[in-house]
Amino acid sequence: MIVVMKAASSDEQINHVLSFLAKHGLSGHPSNGVERTIIGVLGAVGPSGAPGSIGGINPALGESLEGLPGVENVLRVSKPYKLASREFHPQDTIVDIPVACVQGGVVHVGGKEVVMMAGPCTVESEQQLMTTAAAVRKEGAVILRGGAFKPSTSPYGFRGMGEPGLKLLAKARAEFGMAIITEVMTPTDVPMVCEYADILQIGTRNMQNYMLLDEVGRTNTPVVLKRGMSSTFEEWLLAAEYILSQGNRNVILCERGIRTFEKITRNTMDISAIPLIKQLSHLPIISDPSQGTGRRDLVGPMSLASVAVGTDALLIEVHPNPDEALKDGAQSLTIEQFRELMPQVEKIAAAIGRTFIKG
Ligand code: PEP
Ligand code: MN
Question: Which terminus in the chain has less CB density within 10 A, N or C?
Answer without folding.
Answer: C
